Amino acid sequence: MNPIVFNGNKLRWKFGNIWGLSKEGFMSEKFKIGHIDWIINISHQYDYMMIDLKCTSENEMEKNWICEMSGKFRLLKHSGDGKHIITISRGCYHAGLGTSPSARVIKWYYLLLKNESLILDDQVYVEIDFNFNYYDFSKHIENITDMIVTVNDTEFHLNKWALGSRSKYFQDLIINNLPGETKNVKLENITEHHFCLMLASFYPFFETNLELYYPDLLEVAEFYGVPSLHQKIEQYLLVDTELNVIEKIKYAEKYGYENLMEQSIDSLKTGLEIKFLQADREFMALKDTTKLRIMNRLLDFV
């Protein structure tokens, strides 16, 4: 049974302007969310309500910021007499806003209770309370910044130890050059946005929006040798419901995602599913070791 019931073809969400300030407090201007798009989906694997929110800031965020929103929301509804307001559900969210341009699609997940159902109609509206936080890489920080990385004329003021301890590329760059030679580094094979998302993979509070960017970020993680980014991508692929089994197996094989490989093969529940998989033209391009693991799975049904 679908835990969310829709009355009518379109939901009408009632709310005013939503405002947020950075936790650090040194921004003089508020960021206003000007445009809201809601899409509600239900996962067939887990019971959660997924709300996609497209938000546009009045102020264009710089290319060398990474940002996030976190907080709580309540879905409210007018009672039958129209005089009282009742809370029909509440939840919390943590969403990565990414980088410039300021229009971003972010996701909120509301976990539904086992036997809970929601009836959503034009009397339902949402109340949101959130914090807006970010890291600003455009400024030099005394005793911390000791490297400037330039990507397409955009400067990122960073710390060598932070980069070298998380990226094999930067570790080799720092080890194989004199200290003065690594104060200014220029990168030409990556965009500002993808570089920000790479940095976001090892900053503690930030959740990268992988659904939109993971194919490109796979190449970034591989070229720059960033284990934390590979880990986040594998975690995303483990719960992704859009990719089919053969696509997940190909990613697992190419990037050494053992958990993804094991989950993908274990998801084959019948011998017929495996035979359909073997008939896929992409099956023949898999490594022999992968084919053998799939064949061993087939033996479980003999």
UniProtKB/TrEMBL annotation:
Pfam families: BTB, MATH. SMART domains: BTB. It comes from the Eukaryota. Residues 145-222 form the BTB domain. InterPro entries: BTB/POZ_dom, MATH/TRAF_dom, SKP1/BTB/POZ_sf, TRAF-like. This is BTB domain-containing protein.
